[in-house]
Specification:
Layout (H helix, E strand, L loop, with lengths): L1 E3 L7 H4 L7 H9 L1 H6 L4 E3 L13 H36 L12 E3 L3 H30 L1 H4 L1 H33 L7 H8 L18 H25 L6 H11 L10 H30 L7 H5 L2 E3 H7 L1 H13 L13
Antiparallel strand pairs: 1-2, 3-4
Helix pairs in contact: 4-11, 5-7, 5-11, 7-9, 9-11, 13-14
Bound molecules: protoporphyrin IX containing FE.
The site of protoporphyrin IX containing FE has 21 residues, from helix 5, helix 9, helix 11 and helix 12.
Length: 347
């Protein structure tokens, strides 16, 4: 049972049933009672879920739905097509970045088992999260007409389960990678030179010096950290709707202590904003990672080995991470008796 109350409620709402309205009252009903409802007036409900007191939440259609189906999908499509186009163009113009001195046949360890586990936990779960997320955004239009409603429903349902559960594997992978690699990702003076030379990505034979990670990789690392925090918080809020209503409560609290913010946020609006934000961050994340996947696989000879076997060719290492090789050689020289195998070449 819903009853509209409060100062803004037209009196007619409490006294007259729409079924028995006279013609004159019917005009009042359209401009008064129903227009209040259409504008999202909150009524009183006797069930515990007070959100049910909102019969029609118009912004749900005008702001949230039209934004999601309009600009969000449009710019997401442009962004994804643009990165695929740019990577294809780069490949055509630059080709695969070769090891200039060829493979030496001698390798050294770049990532140990734990580092590779963290990377592939993060990467494997990300790929499934990305595919199931894109399906939620575009599948109905791009996939359903091709594979049919039943197959689409099956894929989407399982995609949603995977999306919910694998999000935790992804967070764990990123947290582990953060712990393992943060120490190598603080900026240093070589990063500026690396950036000024475009990382040697646009000039053949140019190899600006770098330690374990170059400036490009550091940008990727911090982007992954920031985007993961943002996408995880918004995702958890979507998984447990109305649990915290953090934004709604903050706005209400600020207004209560006299901040007079131009707007307030209802818990339902907060869910909608969360979903929009989750979608935007997801698409930006996918665009960045597509660039990373390209350079870590087809784009550069010898790069994949680092995360595949963990061993890279020393010529690759010297060309792309010369300062790291020097450090590893130094370590190996200074602690041979300790049994450290770090950086020791292996045939
Ligand atoms: C699925 C395909 C992927 C491939 C083929 C791939 C490949 C690689 C390779 C080869 C490296 C080592 C680079 C080096 O030795 O310098 C690397 C490092 C890294 N990857 Fe991936 N990766 C993939 C997905 C991902 C995803 C989804 C993420 C995060 C969401 C990610 C985050 C990182 C980070 C933070 C590093 C360390 C910094 C860097 O080397 O750029 N990777 N990846």
């Amino acid at each position: 049972m819903l009853a509209i109350g409060g100062n803004s409620t037209p009196a007619i709402a409490q006294t007259t049933s729409p079924d028995v309205a006279t013609e004159a009252q019917s005009t009042d009903l359209n401009t008064g009672f129903w227009s209040q409802i259409r504008k999202g007036a909150t009524g009183n409900v006797s069930i515990p879920d007070k959100n049910a007191g909102v019969l029609i939440q118009s912004e749900g259609d005008t702001a949230y739905r039209s934004f999601r189906n309009g600009p969000l999908k449009l710019y997401a499509t442009y962004g994804l097509l643009a990165i695929l186009f740019l990577l294809a163009l780069y490949f055509l113009l630059r080709g695969r970045i070769k090891i200039d001195h060829g493979r030496s046949g001698v390798t050294m360890q770049r990532f140990n088992g734990l580092e590779r586990f963290a990377h592939w936990l993060m990467a494997g779960s990300f790929v499934i999260l990305a595919l199931s997320g894109l399906n939620m955004l575009f599948g109905r239009y791009a996939l359903m007409p091709v594979i049919g409603k039943e197959t689409f429903a099956f894929i989407t349902l399982w995609g949603k389960y995977l999306h919910n559960y694998l999000s935790f594997a992804f967070m764990l992978g990123v947290a582990l990678a953060f712990i393992l690699w943060v120490v190598h990702n603080f900026p240093n003076r070589h990063d500026l030179v690396w950036l000024l030379k475009g990382g040697g990505l646009f000039t053949r034979g140019s190899h600006p010096p770098a330690k374990k990670f170059n400036a490009g990789q550091k940008i990727l690392f911090w982007s992954v950290v920031v985007l993961t925090i943002s996408i995880s918080l918004s995702g958890i809020a979507l998984m447990f709707p109305f649990e915290t209503a953090f934004m709604a409560k903050t706005f209400a609290a600020l207004n209560a202590i006299g901040f007079e913010l131009p707007t307030s946020v209802t818990p339902i609006q907060e869910q909608q904003l969360n979903q929009i934000w989750h979608g935007i961050v997801g698409v930006v994340f996918i665009i960045i990672i597509l660039g990373h996947i390209y350079i870590g696989s087809v784009g550069m000879e010898g790069a994949f080995d680092a995360m595949g076997s963990g061993e890279v060719d020393t010529n690759w290492a010297r060309e792309h991470h010369s300062l790291w090789v020097e450090e590893e050689e130094q370590k190996a020289k200074s602690a041979p008796a300790a049994g450290s195998s770090a950086g020791q070449p292996a045939e």
